[in-house]
């Protein structure tokens, strides 16, 4: 399964961001959708991706400011998705 391109946020008027910052809430929703589509429990995916269930829940709900590339790759491997 192929995830859509990482959604990006509009350019920030306050800080002048590039506009290419990932929209982590949308990315988290895509991860959750992929997990639910496969019928996998959050704790099981977290265990297989070597992160805590709380951490994964925070990612799925957009509460993490950022997450490492290594963890993202492990999550994608567990869920069988690619960018």
Descriptive report:
This protein is mainly alpha-helical and 83 residues long. It has one domain (1-83): lambda repressor-like DNA-binding domains (434 Repressor (Amino-terminal Domain)), CATH 1.10.260. It is built from four helices and no strands. The chain has helices spanning 24-37, 42-48, 53-60, 69-79. Helix 2 packs across helix 3. The longest helix is centred in the middle third of the chain and has 14 residues, at 24-37. The chain is globular.
Write a brief caption for the model:
The chain has 83 residues and is mainly α. It has one domain (1-83): 434 Repressor (Amino-terminal Domain) (Orthogonal Bundle).
- Number of separate helices: 4
Average pLDDT works out at 79
CATH structural class: Mainly Alpha
The residue ranges in which pLDDT falls below 50 over 5 or more consecutive positions are none
Strand content: under 5%
Order of helices and strands: HHHH
The CATH superfamily is: lambda repressor-like DNA-binding domains
Task: State the CATH architecture.
Answer: Orthogonal Bundle
Radius of gyration from the alpha-carbon trace, in angstroms: 13 Å
